[in-house]
Amino acid sequence: MKNQRNSERFNDFARVICDELCIVSGVLTDISNTGFRAEFNAPCTIDNEKEYCIQIRLSRINAEPLELMVQPMWSDFSDGKTSIGFSILHSKDSSRLEKYINMLKDDRKSQDETNIVSYDNESLFI
User: Fold this and answer.
1) If I label 6, which of 33, 37, 39, 104 is the partner at 20 to 30 A Cα–Cα?
2) 3-state helix, strand, coil in the chain (%, to 5)
3) At a CB cut-off of 8 Å and minimum separation 6, what does 16 contact?
């Protein structure tokens, strides 16, 4: 199936927190400037018409969590897990997200050239 997204997606790992959606934290699986996918190990209460404030604790950099306004675009519940695709709306941390995506682009380019991926060794992610 051809990827028809306008924004380049990056495989990444981060903790996703939104008490309104799920009582447990989720895991980010990929991200772009315009959206991301998260998986939760529990059923989630999802309203596709609602906007949610989500915190994303990035695993690759030592920083405060990103606070983003998002809207669910699709969801799937199977095998006890809920997968949700989110569209990112304009948020207070939009500029921080853009810088992070640029870092991921640079890392991908560097990895393509050297097969080495850079990581922040002082990450706060636990």
Assistant:
1) 39
2) 15, 40, 45
3) 25, 26, 27, 28, 38, 40, 54, 55, 56
- Tokens 């990827």, residue? 3
Quick one: pLDDT at residue 63?
Answer: 83
Helix/strand/coil for 111: helix
Whole-prediction pTM: 0.80
Q: Which two tokens stand for residue 17?
A: 């927190």
97 token code pair: 């997200």
Cα 125 to Cα 63: distance, rounded to the nearest angstrom: 9
For residue 15, count other CB atoms closer than 10 A to its CB: 17
Query: If DSSP states are collapsed to H, E and C, what string results for 65-90?
Result: CEEEEEEEEEEEEECCEEEEEEEECC
Query: Other C-beta atoms within 10 Å of 88: how many?
Result: 22
Residue 120, burial from CB neighbour count under 10 angstroms (0-12, 13-18, 19+)? middle
pLDDT tens digits, 52-89: 999 999 988 888 999 999 999 999 999 999 999 999 99
